[in-house]
Amino acid sequence: MEFLTERIMASTQVSLNWLSNSDELEAFEDFCNQVKLRLHEGNTLYIFGNGGSAAEASHIAAEFVGKCVTPSRALSSISLNDSISGITAIGNDWDFEMVFSRQLEAHAKPSDIVIGLSTSGNSRNVIAGLKKGKEIGCLTSLWTSTLFYTTNLAFDYVFRAPSSSTPRTQELHLQWGHVLAEYVEISEIR
Fold first, then answer.
1. Model pLDDT for residues 13-27, shown as the tens digit of each residue
2. Which is nearest to 58 in space by CA: 48, 70, 72, 43?
3. Phi, psi angle pair for 123, to nearest 5°
4. Exposed e or buried b per residue across 1-18, where buried means at least 16 C-beta atoms within 10 angstroms of its C-beta
5. pLDDT band per the 50, 70, 90 thresholds, residue 100
6. Three-class SS of residue 75?
7. Is 0.70 surpassed by the pTM of this model?
8. What gap in Å lies between CA 59 and CA 74, rounded to an integer?
9. Tens digits of per-residue pLDDT, 72-87?
10. Which CATH number fits domain 2-189: 3.40.50.10490, 2.30.29.30, 3.40.470.10, 3.10.20.30?
């Protein structure tokens, strides 16, 4: 019981620590507004990551197409992890580092939204995908952790979970995804 309580409290503490950073919270609100406006204008959200972050990307994308909490209009959201044929073809014919950037090259348009999930912030294919999104003219956001230390990447938004723990970081990323989806959904109803 002690182990379970400790882990649940650690997860809660990461969320509370992030909420206590008013600059980060203000930036996230601005990002949510940008996503809301772009999706309501008919643009597409592209989201991707590796491993557990790939599963989160699929989950978050589904919240916009289906519903998170409140039934609303389906919004265009695609997890680039969901095409195993595309990923393996690109990885085989080109390079695994290009599995997201190549898909964005084929599909993304200026004013679309690109979110890359990387616990370390250093996943080469995630960074390449975000760079391609930026090159195309998309709104770009990296969701990462305190393990991310590079500051020379010119993405529109970088959100760092205040943790170096992969599970705690991924839990907060999913929480951000739910909050984003619910925020967009609620504004769609009004």
1. 888 888 888 898 999
2. 48
3. -70, 115
4. eeeeeeeeeebeebbeeb
5. very high
6. coil
7. yes
8. 15
9. 889 999 999 999 999 9
10. 3.40.50.10490
CA dist 38 to 9, 23, 48, 71, 76, Å? Answer: 36, 23, 18, 19, 10
Q: How far is residue 97 from each of residues 71, 139, 189, measured CA to CA in Å?
A: 37, 21, 39
Residue 69 has pLDDT above 90, yes or no: no
Q: Return d(Cα 76, Cα 83) in angstroms, integer.
A: 16
Ramachandran assignment for 152, one of left (phi > 0), alpha (psi -120 to 50 degrees), beta (any other): alpha
Backbone φ, ψ for residue 70 (5° rounding): -110, 125
Do residues 147 and 118 lie in contact, with contact meaning Cβ atoms separated by under 8 Å? Answer: no
